[in-house]
Write a structure and sequence with these properties.
The protein is of the alpha/beta class and 282 residues long. The chain has 13 helices and 11 strands. The chain has a 9-stranded mixed β-sheet, sandwiched between helices. Helix 4 crosses helix 5.
């Protein structure tokens, strides 16, 4: 792990916090490099419904394709669903821990933390072996909010910790976005309440991109190759197909053309291959 030195953009973002951060440590990419890109937090229920899971995955993937960095807390439920969706489509994500970097919490998500270090950052303000206390989760939430350009809550109860993240965001004048849900669903009571209180009602990633001043047409152009085969490959990788054989099965491209086109896309910097041979959008 490395000690994080705050540079311009990151220093400005975290400077908004009412309670200053202690010394930050991180694993993976330098958070300063990620903070200069559009960043959104996706947080919510620890036990989402299938609707909440689907919405979280959709938003995380589509925003990642647009070059947005997704911030969350590696927790059960919406948090880890968002992180995994970003990793699957080759995007960049930041995880903020309530624990030390040598004591990943929850322990069952340690493997995902390792994967995140290859495409993003895992950050903690605690000593390396720190075991989280109940109030550390609330303290962590302020950093999630501070790092983000806006907050997205796909699904949450009125007592969800994600509403605490929204509270921090509101104090820093960071836009809050909530996905509406059934009025008889306890897991949408928190998001529906936020909307009643003035949060941005969102029904698609386009709503979020508009708030970030990102033109959705730019996203489509980013998945266009020099020819039809390259475009098919870019779209397949964006949809989460990363293994060469699976990409071939999905696109039905002949093996020779598949290998040639993947090589050309790699040479042109459109895609890259990781240490285990999986393809990612660059």
């Amino acid at each position: 792990m490395k000690i994080l030195t705050l540079k311009s953009t990151l220093k400005q973002k975290l400077g908004r916090l009412n309670s200053p951060v202690r010394e930050l440590r991180y694993l993976g990419l330098d958070p300063n490099d990620l903070a200069g890109k559009p960043t959104v937090a996706i947080v919510g229920s620890r036990k989402p419904t299938p609707y909440g899971k689907q919405v979280t995955e959709m938003l995380a993937v589509e925003l990642s394709r647009a070059g947005v960095v997704v911030v969350s807390g590696l927790a059960f439920g919406v948090d880890i669903i968002a992180h995994k969706a970003v990793l699957a489509c080759g995007g960049e994500t930041i995880a903020i821990l309530p624990s030390g970097l040598n004591n990943i919490y929850p322990a069952s998500h340690a493997r995902y933390a390792q994967q995140i270090t290859e495409r993003g950052s895992v950050i903690s303000e605690y000593s390396d072996s720190h075991t989280p206390r109940s109030y550390d989760f609330l303290e962590r939430n302020r950093i999630i909010a501070g790092l983000s350009d806006l907050i997205i809550i796909p699904e949450a109860t009125e007592k969800s910790g994600s509403l605490n993240t929204a509270k921090h965001a509101k104090a820093m004048n960071i836009p809050i976005c909530a996905v509406p849900g059934p009025i008889n669903s306890p897991l949408s009571s928190g998001t529906n309440l936020l909307i009643k209180q003035g949060a941005n009602l969102i029904t698609s990633s386009e709503d979020i991109l508009a708030l970030l001043n990102i033109n959705p047409s730019t996203v489509q152009l980013s998945l266009t190759g020099e020819n039809e085969i390259e475009t098919l490959l870019l779209q397949a990788i964006a949809d989460g197909f990363q293994d060469t054989a699976l990409i071939g099965q999905e696109t039905e491209i002949k093996t020779k053309d598949l290998q040639t086109s993947l090589t050309m896309l790699e040479i042109s910097g459109r895609i890259s291959q990781d240490a285990v041979g999986m393809w990612h959008l660059s």
